[in-house]
Amino acid sequence: MKKNQAKKPAAQRLIVGMSGASGVAYGIRFLEALKELGIESHLVMSKPAELTIAYETKLTVKQVAAKADHRYAITDVGAAIASGGFRTGGMVIAPCSVRTFSEIATGVTTSLLTRAADVCLKERRPLILMVRETPLHLGHLRSLTALAEMGAIILPPMPAFYAEPRTLADLVDQMVGKALDLLGHDWPDTRRWGEDLPGEKRR
């Protein structure tokens, strides 16, 4: 563990996981929001997530990783975030694939990504899963129900049209802001019902 990791208060330290589902823009924007808020980010990406970055963005994996304060290999099960003794304010998996949430639901974890999520559940820390799959069959729903019963927050990235989004970036920001709200962080770019962004009025 690096010395500077131990100095940050737990509430100001969050884990960001990215799995291979469509929607890597959510995880990338989440990392950028944490940087803006001065919150220490700990990133772990699956191999399929790295492939999806190439499919869905113009960024390289290295450029995405550079947005995080700390990045871990998916195979590094001895990393700080694999231990309950390493305190954090919780974890967001954005996007969260079916395979990833199914693994977490069983408790049989095979990578640092799902192990870190399991740690959040056992330590009673917030775990937000931005599930990217539709439609869902009964097996998916049963796994998600089990996760909700264990304390996970299931947050599919559903667009909020009351926020009057004008671009895809607006839709992404709205969901990233929602996740940050659930973690107790006020991000200035979040648009909430009945509120305008600074210097902006609704049409």
Task: Give an account of the 3D structure.
- This protein is of the alpha/beta class.
- The protein has seven helices and six strands.
- It has helices at residues 24-37, 47-56, 61-65, 98-106, 112-122, 138-150, 168-182; strands spanning 13-18, 40-45, 70-72, 91-96, 127-131, 153-154.
- A six-stranded parallel sheet has the order 3-2-1-4-5-6, sandwiched between helices.
- Strand 5, helix 6 and strand 6 form a beta-alpha-beta unit.
Order of helices and strands: EHEHHEEHHEHEH
Largest sheet: 6 strands, parallel
Largest sheet, spatial ordering of strands: 3-2-1-4-5-6
Please state the average pLDDT score: 92
* Ends apart, CA distance between termini: 50 Å
> What is the β-strand count?
6
Helix content: 25-40%
Structural class comes to alpha/beta
Please work out how many helical segments DSSP would assign.
7
Segments where pLDDT lies below 50 for 5+ residues?
Answer: none
Share in β-strands? 5-15%
Oligomer: single chain
Shape: globular
The Cα radius of gyration reads: 16 Å
